[in-house]
Specification:
Elements (H helix, E strand, L loop, with lengths): L2 E3 L2 E3 L3 E3 L6 H8 L1 H5 L6 E2 L16 E4 L2 E4 L7 H24 L5 E5 L4 H12 L4 E7 L6 H8 L1 H11 L7 E4 L7 H11 L3 E4 L3 E3 L20 E4 L4 H14 L4 E4 L5 H9 L4 E4 L2 H4 L3 H10 L1
Parallel strand pairs: 3-14, 4-7, 7-8, 8-9, 9-10, 10-13, 13-14
Antiparallel strand pairs: 1-2, 5-6, 6-12, 11-12
The protein binds succinic acid.
Length: 298
């Protein structure tokens, strides 16, 4: 079950999707239980931006028929808050997991910037921290304008990845958006710019209308107007996009999108993913990653 990924040794191929599992909150809720049964072979942080962000106005979630739409808007403490307050706690959790399970999950920090200059500052600051094993560049959040613009345009994406690549010696994963005409072209652009791996899919742009009385103007439910759809509803899209990307790049591919079971994970691996991330399912079952990894083993 162990996997080599960009020079990192992972105990199994199941990791978390960025922003879908808060390890610090999980330790508060589950205590030592989290360390015995840590669900992921590597831990990906929520997206960090240079400055703190409040995120989008509420409501931020809508339950869809087979998943959910989020319009969270990347709330976070900002780079310095993350490095000062959260990273030491995540490193402590990883060390606790190593004591219990024998392997520390490598920490992958996910970052997003509005420009190459911002991204360089984020990557360079993370590069100095030995607790961080790899970086994931989010160019795919549908809930903030700038992130998506970079990721949807292959030429811009290649230029940005090429410009920021030298600012870290750590493996750099580029998280792609499905909200583009040709995701495989974007993956190739990320590879040409110097990415060590790509991950996909992030959420599909979506919206939902608030219930309204007859004759009333209907309004979007979400405070941000639109959001990103995730969960089983997007699994078939993820499978198609991961397959298309895996055929066109030679760097490792992390597949995700609506994975609920080992069979879903296996599908993504069979079309070329070397790791599989679990996202929305962890909201329903925080131990889903561990369950899927053990189903996959058997
Ligand atoms: C969000 O915080 O809006 C979700 C993160 C993402 O879609 O990248």
């Amino acid at each position: 079950m162990s996997v080599s990924f960009c020079g990192l040794e992972l105990a199994h191929p199941i990791i978390n999707g960025s922003g879908t599992f808060d390890a610090i909150a999980a330790r508060r809720a589950f205590g030592a239980g989290l360390l015995h049964g840590f669900p992921f072979a590597a831990y990906v942080s929520k997206t960090i931006t240079l400055e703190p962000r409040e995120g989008n106005p509420p409501p931020r979630l809508w339950e869809a028929a087979a998943g959910m739409i989020n319009s969270i808007g990347l709330p976070n403490k900002g780079l310095h808050g993350y490095l000062r307050e959260d990273l030491p706690q995540l490193a402590e959790i990883a060390a606790g997991v190593a004591e219990q399970l024998g392997n520390a999950p490598p920490l992958i920090t996910n970052v997003m910037g509005a420009s190459a200059t911002e991204i360089v500052r984020l990557l360079a600051a993370c590069d100095e921290r030995e607790e961080i094993a790899a970086l994931e560049l989010n160019v795919s959040c549908p809930n903030v304008k700038t992130g998506l613009d970079i990721g949807a345009d292959p030429r811009q994406l290649e230029d940005v990845v090429r410009a920021v690549r030298p600012s870290t010696r750590k493996p750099l994963i580029v998280k792609l958006t499905p909200n583009t005409a040709d995701v495989a072209l974007c993956a190739q652009a990320a590879e040409a710019g110097g990415a060590d791996a790509v991950s996909l899919i992030n959420t599909l742009r979506a919206t939902a209308l608030a219930p309204g009385w007859e004759g009333e103007e209907r309004r979007p439910w979400l405070g941000g107007g639109t959001g990103g759809l995730s969960g089983p509803a997007i699994r078939a899209v993820a499978l198609a996009q991961v397959a298309a990307v895996a055929q066109r790049v030679s760097i490792p591919v992390i597949g995700m999108g609506g994975v609920r079971s080992a069979s879903d994970a296996r599908d993504l691996m069979d079309v070329g993913a070397c790791l599989v991330a679990v996202g929305t399912e962890s909201f329903r079952d925080p131990a889903a990653g561990a369950r899927i990894a053990s189903e996959l083993a058997s």
